[in-house]
Amino acid sequence: MTGTPRPRTVLLTGASGVVGRSILREPTALRLLAATHSAPAPEADGRRIRCDLTADRLGLEKEEYTALAGEVDAVIHSAGLTEWGLPAERYRPINIEGTRRVIEFARHAGATVHFMSTAFVAALAETAPVALSEGNMCRNYISSKWEAERLLRDSGIPHTVFRPTNLVGDSATGWTSKGQIVQLMSDWICRGRAPFLPAHAGIRMDFVPQDLLSKAVLRAIEQDVSEGEFWVTYGAEAMDMDASLRVLAKHAAYLGRDLTIPPVVDPDTLTAEQLAGLRPMVRNYVAVLRDVSEVTRCSGGVLPSSMPELRTRFGVPLVDDATAYLRSLEYASAHLS
Ligand SMILES: NC(=O)c1ccc[n+]([C@@H]2O[C@H](COP(=O)([O-])OP(=O)(O)OC[C@H]3O[C@@H](n4cnc5c(N)ncnc54)[C@H](OP(=O)(O)O)[C@@H]3O)[C@@H](O)[C@H]2O)c1
């Protein structure tokens, strides 16, 4: 006797985060169980699970853990500490040991793990043309994601790795649950506060709308994909510096501001005195731009990309990145600032 097959059940860690909430908004036949930590995930309509990556059994009681493992077919592991500039020991319990616990759970459940890593790991690859400086503010974060990827590789469990670049709002509406570093920095530049923009020659401004990542991972699970590494980036299609500055000028004009685009300077020519002369907040923002630029340079200037494959294999829509970037800035100006 054949009954109606039950929908496959997917545990989503980090359901309250930017990526988690974007995934929860996407239509899918999968049954998503939203695992949240301290914040709620308003888009979750099914059962919610309180999960702590830093605790044994993900912070669940033994019975709940076992029952959950019995019903989960796949895990989207999106929870993590995403802030940059923290000491390495802050990332370890969540990004590395937390991933170890997710692997343990998946082994118990016989589930495939779909891991949200970062495209910035390209800067640590053996193929990196230049070594990332020790003091780069993204380094400890990237290293923790790199280490988590290694744990997955060594675990032998079926898994995929998605490596998104910096995400912006939804491709159609600009919606995001929370402002991201791209919107924050762009807003600062559009207010005319940046004295100059540190960027290495030739680097691409690679920003991807968050729903493209959500669609890709959900379609991968629907298609029962259990291996592969996917760079969720535009790569060589991404805006160059001039294209991104045109978006900023357009957005400033939309806000009624007469923006003089600040000069672009090579970060390697910046002197300590030049930086010391800046007000602390300006210095911090300049340092973010400089360090992100360095990450991209160490990734070869252009991030690796699986976008063509994501389109053909998972139906990820063809979206112009400059249009999506502008839409995202408009949404952020109207709703987040
Ligand atoms: N957003 C991006 O631009 C971007 C780009 C590249 C890669 N990624 C990767 O994509 C993933 C999701 O990013 P995101 O932007 O959604 O991050 P986010 O908005 O900072 O959300 C992080 C999520 O992790 C959860 N979390 C933190 N500590 C936890 C713990 N101890 N136990 C359980 N859950 C915990 C948070 O829950 P609470 O808030 O409730 O504590 C939150 O739901 C991350 O792994 C990140 O590395 C993101």
From TrEMBL:
It holds the Pfam family NAD_binding_4. Residues 49-216 form the Thioester reductase (TE) domain. It comes from the Bacteria. InterPro entries: FAR_NAD-bd, Lipid_A_modif_metabolic_enz, NAD(P)-bd_dom_sf. This is NAD-dependent epimerase/dehydratase family protein. It comes from Streptomyces palmae.
